[in-house]
Task: structure prediction
Amino acid sequence: MAAKRFYLIHGSDEFAIERRIKSICDTFSDPTSAQMNTARLDMAKVDVAQAIDAAFAMPFLSDTRYVILDNAVHPFVGNVGKTTVQHYRTQMLDMLNRLPPTSALIVTYNADIDAGKDKKAENPLSWLSGWSAPDGQSFQIDGYTVPRSEVDKRKWILKAAKEIGLAIHDQAVGFLISFSGEFDTRALGNEIAKLAAYVNYERMATLADVTAVCVSKEVFSIFELTDAIGQQELTAAMKIYRNLSQELDPATEIFPMIVRQYRLLLQVAYVEQVIKEPSQIPVINGLSNSWVADKFRAQARKYPFESLRRIYKALMELDLAAKRSRIDPGTGIEIFIYESSRGAVFPISPILTPRPVVEHQ
Result:
Protein backbone atom coordinates (compact mmCIF):
# COMPACT_ATOMS: atom_id res chain seq x y z
CA MET A 1 0.00 0.00 0.00
CA ALA A 2 1.35 3.42 -1.03
CA ALA A 3 2.26 5.85 1.72
CA LYS A 4 -0.24 8.61 2.41
CA ARG A 5 0.75 11.79 0.58
CA PHE A 6 -2.15 14.24 0.93
CA TYR A 7 -3.39 15.78 4.19
CA LEU A 8 -6.03 18.45 4.73
CA ILE A 9 -6.09 19.75 8.32
CA HIS A 10 -8.68 22.31 9.40
CA GLY A 11 -10.16 23.84 12.53
CA SER A 12 -9.79 26.59 15.13
CA ASP A 13 -7.52 24.60 17.45
CA GLU A 14 -4.13 25.81 16.23
CA PHE A 15 -2.25 23.88 18.89
CA ALA A 16 -3.80 20.57 17.82
CA ILE A 17 -3.17 21.39 14.15
CA GLU A 18 0.52 22.03 14.81
CA ARG A 19 0.74 18.85 16.84
CA ARG A 20 -0.83 16.89 13.97
CA ILE A 21 1.59 18.39 11.44
CA LYS A 22 4.50 17.40 13.68
CA SER A 23 3.22 13.83 13.94
CA ILE A 24 3.00 13.55 10.14
CA CYS A 25 6.47 14.98 9.53
CA ASP A 26 8.15 13.20 12.44
CA THR A 27 9.83 10.56 10.28
CA PHE A 28 13.38 11.89 10.23
CA SER A 29 16.23 10.57 12.34
CA ASP A 30 17.83 13.97 12.94
CA PRO A 31 16.83 17.69 12.89
CA THR A 32 19.08 18.48 9.90
CA SER A 33 17.31 15.96 7.66
CA ALA A 34 13.94 17.31 8.82
CA GLN A 35 14.95 20.89 8.02
CA MET A 36 16.33 19.96 4.59
CA ASN A 37 13.18 18.06 3.64
CA THR A 38 10.41 20.26 4.99
CA ALA A 39 9.10 23.43 3.38
CA ARG A 40 6.32 25.65 4.73
CA LEU A 41 4.66 28.38 2.65
CA ASP A 42 1.92 30.90 3.38
CA MET A 43 -0.19 30.95 0.20
CA ALA A 44 -1.52 34.40 1.13
CA LYS A 45 2.03 35.71 0.52
CA VAL A 46 3.36 33.54 -2.32
CA ASP A 47 2.01 32.39 -5.66
CA VAL A 48 1.31 28.89 -6.92
CA ALA A 49 4.58 28.82 -8.89
CA GLN A 50 6.56 29.01 -5.63
CA ALA A 51 4.47 26.21 -4.17
CA ILE A 52 5.23 24.10 -7.24
CA ASP A 53 8.97 24.75 -6.86
CA ALA A 54 8.82 23.57 -3.25
CA ALA A 55 6.65 20.54 -3.97
CA PHE A 56 8.60 19.32 -6.98
CA ALA A 57 12.04 19.55 -5.36
CA MET A 58 13.70 16.20 -4.74
CA PRO A 59 14.17 15.06 -1.12
CA PHE A 60 17.72 15.21 0.26
CA LEU A 61 19.00 11.84 1.53
CA SER A 62 15.42 10.84 2.35
CA ASP A 63 12.47 9.08 0.78
CA THR A 64 9.98 11.89 1.36
CA ARG A 65 9.82 15.67 1.23
CA TYR A 66 7.02 17.40 3.18
CA VAL A 67 5.42 20.59 1.91
CA ILE A 68 3.05 22.47 4.21
CA LEU A 69 0.75 25.05 2.61
CA ASP A 70 -0.97 27.44 5.00
CA ASN A 71 -3.97 29.50 3.81
CA ALA A 72 -4.07 27.39 0.65
CA VAL A 73 -7.82 26.78 0.76
CA HIS A 74 -8.67 30.45 0.26
CA PRO A 75 -5.63 32.77 0.31
CA PHE A 76 -7.43 35.90 -0.86
CA VAL A 77 -7.91 39.01 1.27
CA GLY A 78 -11.04 41.07 0.59
CA ASN A 79 -13.46 40.58 -2.27
CA VAL A 80 -12.13 38.91 -5.41
CA GLY A 81 -13.89 37.80 -8.55
CA LYS A 82 -14.98 34.24 -9.25
CA THR A 83 -12.57 34.11 -12.19
CA THR A 84 -9.59 34.78 -9.90
CA VAL A 85 -10.68 32.09 -7.45
CA GLN A 86 -11.32 29.56 -10.20
CA HIS A 87 -7.96 30.26 -11.85
CA TYR A 88 -6.17 29.74 -8.52
CA ARG A 89 -8.00 26.48 -7.88
CA THR A 90 -7.23 25.22 -11.37
CA GLN A 91 -3.52 25.89 -10.85
CA MET A 92 -3.55 24.17 -7.46
CA LEU A 93 -5.39 21.08 -8.73
CA ASP A 94 -3.00 20.82 -11.66
CA MET A 95 -0.10 20.84 -9.19
CA LEU A 96 -1.77 18.13 -7.12
CA ASN A 97 -2.34 15.94 -10.18
CA ARG A 98 1.36 16.13 -11.10
CA LEU A 99 2.83 15.91 -7.58
CA PRO A 100 5.81 13.53 -7.57
CA PRO A 101 5.52 10.40 -5.39
CA THR A 102 8.45 11.62 -3.29
CA SER A 103 6.45 14.60 -1.95
CA ALA A 104 3.76 14.70 0.72
CA LEU A 105 1.47 17.73 0.83
CA ILE A 106 -0.15 19.14 3.97
CA VAL A 107 -2.80 21.82 3.49
CA THR A 108 -4.05 23.76 6.54
CA TYR A 109 -7.23 25.81 7.03
CA ASN A 110 -7.48 27.61 10.38
CA ALA A 111 -11.26 27.75 10.73
CA ASP A 112 -14.08 25.44 11.75
CA ILE A 113 -16.40 24.05 9.12
CA ASP A 114 -19.91 24.48 10.49
CA ALA A 115 -22.30 22.87 8.06
CA GLY A 116 -25.30 23.92 10.13
CA LYS A 117 -24.57 27.64 9.85
CA ASP A 118 -25.65 28.21 6.28
CA LYS A 119 -26.66 25.22 4.23
CA LYS A 120 -26.58 27.27 1.01
CA ALA A 121 -23.00 28.45 1.54
CA GLU A 122 -20.25 26.53 -0.21
CA ASN A 123 -18.05 24.34 1.96
CA PRO A 124 -14.64 26.01 1.48
CA LEU A 125 -12.94 22.61 1.56
CA SER A 126 -15.16 20.92 -1.06
CA TRP A 127 -12.88 21.63 -4.04
CA LEU A 128 -10.06 19.80 -2.27
CA SER A 129 -11.96 17.17 -0.28
CA GLY A 130 -13.64 15.90 -3.46
CA TRP A 131 -10.39 15.66 -5.42
CA SER A 132 -8.46 12.43 -6.03
CA ALA A 133 -5.04 11.86 -7.59
CA PRO A 134 -4.47 9.79 -10.75
CA ASP A 135 -3.29 6.92 -8.54
CA GLY A 136 -6.55 7.05 -6.55
CA GLN A 137 -5.19 8.78 -3.45
CA SER A 138 -7.22 11.58 -1.89
CA PHE A 139 -6.85 13.96 1.03
CA GLN A 140 -6.93 12.54 4.53
CA ILE A 141 -9.05 15.14 6.34
CA ASP A 142 -8.59 15.93 10.04
CA GLY A 143 -10.55 18.57 11.94
CA TYR A 144 -9.66 20.12 15.30
CA THR A 145 -12.11 22.48 17.02
CA VAL A 146 -11.43 24.55 20.12
CA PRO A 147 -13.61 22.96 22.84
CA ARG A 148 -16.55 25.03 24.05
CA SER A 149 -18.12 23.05 26.88
CA GLU A 150 -16.56 22.60 30.31
CA VAL A 151 -16.40 18.82 29.80
CA ASP A 152 -14.64 19.12 26.43
CA LYS A 153 -12.15 21.67 27.79
CA ARG A 154 -11.30 19.31 30.62
CA LYS A 155 -10.82 16.42 28.18
CA TRP A 156 -8.58 18.60 25.99
CA ILE A 157 -6.25 19.52 28.87
CA LEU A 158 -6.04 15.94 30.15
CA LYS A 159 -5.27 14.64 26.65
CA ALA A 160 -2.63 17.32 25.98
CA ALA A 161 -0.99 16.53 29.32
CA LYS A 162 -1.09 12.77 28.76
CA GLU A 163 0.54 13.10 25.34
CA ILE A 164 3.68 14.57 26.91
CA GLY A 165 3.64 12.16 29.86
CA LEU A 166 2.16 14.49 32.49
CA ALA A 167 -0.44 13.54 35.08
CA ILE A 168 -2.44 16.53 36.29
CA HIS A 169 -4.76 16.86 39.31
CA ASP A 170 -8.44 17.60 38.70
CA GLN A 171 -8.28 20.84 40.71
CA ALA A 172 -5.36 22.03 38.59
CA VAL A 173 -7.33 21.29 35.42
CA GLY A 174 -10.28 23.32 36.68
CA PHE A 175 -8.00 26.21 37.58
CA LEU A 176 -6.43 26.25 34.10
CA ILE A 177 -9.90 26.34 32.53
CA SER A 178 -10.99 29.21 34.79
CA PHE A 179 -8.06 31.43 33.87
CA SER A 180 -7.78 30.50 30.20
CA GLY A 181 -10.28 33.16 29.07
CA GLU A 182 -11.07 32.33 25.45
CA PHE A 183 -9.39 28.93 25.89
CA ASP A 184 -6.30 29.72 23.84
CA THR A 185 -5.09 26.19 23.08
CA ARG A 186 -1.65 27.31 21.94
CA ALA A 187 -1.07 29.20 25.21
CA LEU A 188 -2.48 26.32 27.26
CA GLY A 189 -0.21 23.88 25.47
CA ASN A 190 2.77 26.01 26.49
CA GLU A 191 1.55 26.17 30.10
CA ILE A 192 1.15 22.37 30.23
CA ALA A 193 4.72 21.96 28.90
CA LYS A 194 5.97 24.37 31.60
CA LEU A 195 4.12 22.33 34.24
CA ALA A 196 5.70 19.10 33.01
CA ALA A 197 9.18 20.61 33.20
CA TYR A 198 8.46 22.06 36.65
CA VAL A 199 7.52 18.66 38.15
CA ASN A 200 10.28 17.04 36.05
CA TYR A 201 7.77 14.47 34.75
CA GLU A 202 8.15 12.67 38.09
CA ARG A 203 4.85 13.39 39.82
CA MET A 204 1.30 14.64 39.32
CA ALA A 205 0.98 18.40 38.76
CA THR A 206 -1.14 19.96 41.50
CA LEU A 207 -3.05 23.19 41.97
CA ALA A 208 -0.06 24.60 43.86
CA ASP A 209 2.17 23.85 40.86
CA VAL A 210 -0.21 25.65 38.50
CA THR A 211 -0.40 28.76 40.68
CA ALA A 212 3.39 28.73 41.07
CA VAL A 213 4.26 28.29 37.41
CA CYS A 214 1.38 29.03 35.08
CA VAL A 215 -0.63 31.92 36.49
CA SER A 216 1.11 35.24 35.94
CA LYS A 217 1.64 37.73 38.73
CA GLU A 218 -0.61 40.09 36.76
CA VAL A 219 -3.63 37.83 37.36
CA PHE A 220 -3.08 37.94 41.11
CA SER A 221 -2.47 41.69 40.93
CA ILE A 222 -5.98 42.15 39.55
CA PHE A 223 -7.34 40.31 42.60
CA GLU A 224 -5.22 42.56 44.81
CA LEU A 225 -6.40 45.67 42.95
CA THR A 226 -10.10 44.86 43.31
CA ASP A 227 -9.47 43.85 46.93
CA ALA A 228 -7.95 47.28 47.62
CA ILE A 229 -10.82 49.06 45.88
CA GLY A 230 -13.37 47.03 47.85
CA GLN A 231 -11.61 47.94 51.11
CA GLN A 232 -11.39 51.61 49.97
CA GLU A 233 -7.58 51.57 50.21
CA LEU A 234 -6.82 54.21 47.58
CA THR A 235 -3.04 54.36 48.06
CA ALA A 236 -2.67 50.58 47.80
CA ALA A 237 -4.98 50.40 44.76
CA MET A 238 -3.05 53.11 42.90
CA LYS A 239 0.29 51.49 43.70
CA ILE A 240 -0.89 48.12 42.38
CA TYR A 241 -2.26 49.70 39.20
CA ARG A 242 0.91 51.71 38.50
CA ASN A 243 3.06 48.61 39.00
CA LEU A 244 0.81 46.72 36.59
CA SER A 245 0.99 49.51 34.01
CA GLN A 246 4.77 49.10 33.91
CA GLU A 247 4.27 45.60 32.50
CA LEU A 248 0.95 45.75 30.68
CA ASP A 249 -0.86 48.12 28.32
CA PRO A 250 -3.75 49.84 30.18
CA ALA A 251 -6.16 49.83 27.22
CA THR A 252 -5.67 46.34 25.79
CA GLU A 253 -4.52 44.29 28.79
CA ILE A 254 -5.29 45.86 32.18
CA PHE A 255 -8.76 47.25 31.45
CA PRO A 256 -10.17 43.96 30.04
CA MET A 257 -8.92 42.12 33.17
CA ILE A 258 -10.60 44.68 35.45
CA VAL A 259 -13.86 44.38 33.48
CA ARG A 260 -13.76 40.57 33.66
CA GLN A 261 -13.06 40.68 37.40
CA TYR A 262 -16.01 42.94 38.14
CA ARG A 263 -18.31 41.05 35.77
CA LEU A 264 -17.66 37.84 37.70
CA LEU A 265 -17.96 39.64 41.06
CA LEU A 266 -21.30 41.09 39.97
CA GLN A 267 -22.55 37.64 38.94
CA VAL A 268 -21.42 36.09 42.22
CA ALA A 269 -23.00 38.90 44.25
CA TYR A 270 -26.26 38.52 42.32
CA VAL A 271 -26.36 34.78 43.01
CA GLU A 272 -25.49 35.17 46.71
CA GLN A 273 -27.15 38.46 47.67
CA VAL A 274 -30.15 38.78 45.35
CA ILE A 275 -31.47 35.34 44.45
CA LYS A 276 -29.68 33.73 47.43
CA GLU A 277 -28.70 30.56 45.58
CA PRO A 278 -24.96 30.14 46.32
CA SER A 279 -25.07 26.60 44.94
CA GLN A 280 -25.39 28.15 41.47
CA ILE A 281 -21.97 29.85 41.61
CA PRO A 282 -20.10 26.93 39.94
CA VAL A 283 -22.47 27.32 36.95
CA ILE A 284 -21.06 30.81 36.24
CA ASN A 285 -18.70 30.59 33.28
CA GLY A 286 -15.13 30.71 34.60
CA LEU A 287 -15.93 29.70 38.19
CA SER A 288 -16.23 25.93 37.95
CA ASN A 289 -13.07 25.48 39.99
CA SER A 290 -13.84 25.55 43.73
CA TRP A 291 -10.63 27.41 44.65
CA VAL A 292 -11.40 30.20 42.17
CA ALA A 293 -15.09 30.31 43.14
CA ASP A 294 -14.22 30.67 46.84
CA LYS A 295 -11.85 33.54 46.09
CA PHE A 296 -14.51 35.41 44.11
CA ARG A 297 -17.14 34.66 46.76
CA ALA A 298 -14.95 36.12 49.50
CA GLN A 299 -14.20 39.21 47.44
CA ALA A 300 -17.82 39.79 46.36
CA ARG A 301 -18.92 39.89 50.00
CA LYS A 302 -16.88 43.08 50.46
CA TYR A 303 -19.26 44.92 48.14
CA PRO A 304 -23.02 45.57 48.36
CA PHE A 305 -24.66 44.33 45.16
CA GLU A 306 -25.75 47.85 44.14
CA SER A 307 -22.16 49.12 44.44
CA LEU A 308 -20.96 46.39 42.09
CA ARG A 309 -23.76 47.17 39.67
CA ARG A 310 -22.81 50.87 39.60
CA ILE A 311 -19.11 50.06 39.24
CA TYR A 312 -19.77 47.74 36.32
CA LYS A 313 -21.96 50.35 34.63
CA ALA A 314 -19.16 52.93 35.07
CA LEU A 315 -16.69 50.50 33.48
CA MET A 316 -18.98 50.05 30.46
CA GLU A 317 -19.27 53.83 30.08
CA LEU A 318 -15.50 54.18 30.37
CA ASP A 319 -14.96 51.49 27.74
CA LEU A 320 -17.30 53.23 25.29
CA ALA A 321 -15.70 56.63 25.97
CA ALA A 322 -12.19 55.27 25.39
CA LYS A 323 -13.23 53.65 22.10
CA ARG A 324 -14.65 57.00 20.98
CA SER A 325 -11.39 58.75 21.95
CA ARG A 326 -13.17 60.88 24.55
CA ILE A 327 -10.77 59.85 27.32
CA ASP A 328 -7.29 58.38 27.56
CA PRO A 329 -7.66 54.75 28.83
CA GLY A 330 -4.85 55.09 31.39
CA THR A 331 -6.29 58.33 32.78
CA GLY A 332 -9.77 56.81 32.82
CA ILE A 333 -8.60 53.80 34.82
CA GLU A 334 -6.87 56.03 37.39
CA ILE A 335 -10.01 58.16 37.81
CA PHE A 336 -12.09 54.99 38.09
CA ILE A 337 -9.78 53.60 40.81
CA TYR A 338 -9.77 56.93 42.67
CA GLU A 339 -13.55 57.30 42.69
CA SER A 340 -14.30 53.62 43.35
CA SER A 341 -11.79 53.42 46.21
CA ARG A 342 -13.59 56.34 47.88
CA GLY A 343 -16.86 54.43 47.59
CA ALA A 344 -18.17 57.19 45.34
CA VAL A 345 -21.00 56.82 42.87
CA PHE A 346 -19.85 58.74 39.82
CA PRO A 347 -20.98 59.24 36.25
CA ILE A 348 -18.29 59.09 33.60
CA SER A 349 -19.67 61.85 31.34
CA PRO A 350 -18.38 64.96 33.23
CA ILE A 351 -14.74 63.86 32.90
CA LEU A 352 -14.89 63.19 29.18
CA THR A 353 -13.46 65.32 26.40
CA PRO A 354 -16.39 67.16 24.78
CA ARG A 355 -17.40 65.96 21.34
CA PRO A 356 -16.21 68.28 18.58
CA VAL A 357 -18.90 70.51 17.20
CA VAL A 358 -19.37 70.00 13.47
CA GLU A 359 -20.49 73.11 11.67
CA HIS A 360 -22.74 72.51 8.70
CA GLN A 361 -22.49 74.91 5.83
